[in-house]
């Protein structure tokens, strides 16, 4: 079963599944959204967990590969009174012209995208020159012991449930494509906030 099918089946239950982590992740989501300016694209919007944190001044567009998730996010945007343009679209194949956005935001997406390198190239392509890419992502920890004792078992579980890969090194991939302006490591590198500029 593909990640699309698994997330489609989860639907609204995804909120329940992730609720225990909200107190850890929501402050980081708020921080990530604070870097968004101008015409903004969020890839992998999911159930819309980032939506409450964007500034009212941005022009927000959001994509997800799973139609059921897009509908949940659209409903949340209506409840929040937000004007958001939603699209069903893969991160690896963004159907926007080159240089379309001032900011692209990715929040806990690169652990799931089947082809991370291709998705990173697409983010780079749709950004305007000097545009900003903001990543809030699960990554391989700086601590080898933590990787073996915690992340590897979690990787097996989440891989089975959601096709997630918690051991990806998205922070290193981002450095290949962007000039890094800001980087934070949280929980021994299990979560990182990375802000890069297209040069």
Structure description:
- There is one protein chain.
- With 199 residues, the protein is of the alpha/beta class.
- It has one domain (3-197): Rossmann fold.
- 39% of the residues lie in helices and 25% in strands.
- The protein has a seven-stranded mixed β-sheet, sandwiched between helices.
- Helix 5 runs parallel beside helix 7.
- The longest helix has 19 residues, at 144-162.
- Residues 156-162 have low confidence and may be disordered.
- This is Class I SAM-dependent methyltransferase.
The backbone outline, from C-alpha atoms, is globular
Output the structural class.
alpha/beta
Query: N- to C-terminal separation?
Result: 39 Å
Q: Helix coverage percent of residues?
A: 25-40%
Under CATH, the topology is which? Answer: Rossmann fold
Total DSSP E strands: 7
Q: Quickly name the level 1 CATH class.
A: Alpha Beta
Query: How many discrete structural domains?
Result: 1
